[in-house]
Amino acid sequence: MKRAKIKPAPAQRFAYPGLDRVIHERARLGLLTSLMTHRKGLTFNALKQLCGLTDGNLNRHLEVLERARLIEIKKDAKQGRPQTRCCITAEGRKRFLAYLAVLEQVLLDAESGTQTPNCLALARGLRST
User: Fold this and answer.
1) Which of 48, 24, 49, 9 shows the shortest CA–CA distance to 100?
2) Cβ proximity of 37 and 43 under 8 Å
3) What is the largest CA-CA distance in the chain?
4) Is CB count within 10 Å lower at the N or C end of the chain?
5) What is the dihedral of CA 120, 27, 72, 46, to 10 degrees?
6) Is 15 exposed, middle or buried (0-12, 13-18, 19+ CB in 10 A)?
7) Which sign, positive or negative, has the C-alpha torsion 96, 102, 105, 110?
8) Strand (E) or helix (H) holding 74
């Protein structure tokens, strides 16, 4: 009786090294998504409201993102009042899109092992027919 050859799985197939730890944290993921959708950037207060963060938490996450060169923080005065504005950098945009590509692969891999058709569409909030 002949044995069926089992093709070994590629080493570390599901390691996903492209899931950038700086981006992958929930609050920073929300911050970068907000900044991706607002090309001109957002004020500190707008980000605080959009992402549901406290002043301290937001400040800390912005520091991490700025140190990683994913965002740029500009401080100026509007109508005599200090204002902090955050913008995603070109490098930040590039890394975020690369991160999303890996995340999409995670969804596709998960879909291949489930009975749920079109897992990616469901993750996008769409209904498959």
Assistant:
1) 24
2) no
3) 86
4) N
5) 100
6) exposed
7) negative
8) strand 71-78
Query: How far is Cα 81 from Cα 55, in angstroms, rounded to an integer?
Result: 17
- Could you report how far apart the first and last alpha carbons of the chain are, in Å? 45
Give yes or no for a contact between 48 and 58, defined as CB atoms under 8 angstroms apart.
yes
- Which pLDDT band, with edges at 50, 70 and 90, does 75 fall under? very high
Q: Which two tokens stand for residue 114?
A: 């489930």
Q: Among 62, 54, 101, 109, which residue's Cα sits nearest to residue 85?
A: 62
pTM: 0.77
- Beta-bridge partner residues of 78: 81
